Amino acid sequence: MLKGIHHIAIICTDYAVSKAFYTEVLGFEVLAENYREQRDSYKLDLALPDGRQIELFSFPNPPKRPSRPEAAGLRHLAFQVEDIDAAIAHLHAYSVVTESVRVDEYTQQRFTFFQDPDGLPLELYEVKA
């Protein structure tokens, strides 16, 4: 079912500082940078050397957390799947609740979220073979 990690999403408190750190200090390549006006938020897609990605988000005044999805720190861990419907059915067979499937506005890929037993947000991200 799971094929690997597609991306790791991080919400930062200072976009310029974090962008410089990930691109200049760590040397990740910028794949795309989008300003989302309706959310007053940046989304920066970065390539890791193995082809995986980091999504760096900014939000105005993100709350501190260990669990809220729009707060500073690790946002969620995404698992790549080829068939999201089959993966969701598998989770449902184990009584794992999933959110409604959404479509990424930039890539047109389908995704959904669920939680681990401690409430950590996890994502299934469909990438067709």
TrEMBL record:
Q: Look up the domain of life of the source.
A: Bacteria
The molecular function terms in GO held by this entry are: metal ion binding
> Pfam families from the entry?
Glyoxalase
Gene3D superfamilies membership: 2,3-Dihydroxybiphenyl 1,2-Dioxygenase, domain 1
- Which terms are listed as keywords in the entry? Metal-binding
Q: Which PROSITE patterns match?
A: VOC
- Boundaries of each VOC domain copy? 4-127
Q: What is this protein called?
A: VOC domain-containing protein
Q: Which organism is it from?
A: Pseudoalteromonas luteoviolacea S4054
